[in-house]
Design brief:
This protein has one domain. With about 130 residues, it is mainly α. It starts with a helix and ends in an 11-residue tail after the last helix. It has a two-stranded antiparallel sheet with strand order 1-2. It contains 6 helices and 2 strands; from the N terminus they run ααββαααα.
Amino acid sequence: MTAPIGELSAFHETFGSYAQGVSVATTVLPAGWRDRLVTHETPDTEPGRGLCLEPHDCVASKLVAGRSRDLTFARALLRERLIDSQLFAERIDLLPVTAVSVDRAAVARTSKASSGLGSRQSDRSA
């Protein structure tokens, strides 16, 4: 997958973005993620198609890694209203408890500040 649309490919040069494949075996995902996969296909990609994580599942999963760039990414999606703060919090709650290292209070504060929502319970881990 990475050769045609991966980093440093013609696709990357043309569009300024690229795709990376990720193994399900090494990724922490919210329960039910397979049922929410988003299919991307066009006549130009036949017979191929892309199965992509639903945005809320993707961002919740990225935050498990604890990288500052992923928190910045989540904040931008919330600020631009590309993801819904309530649904995002629900997906965080669907992450396996043993794998969760996400600071849920920080995410809730980010969600509230980025979306302009009113008062919301900020610590969902209790």
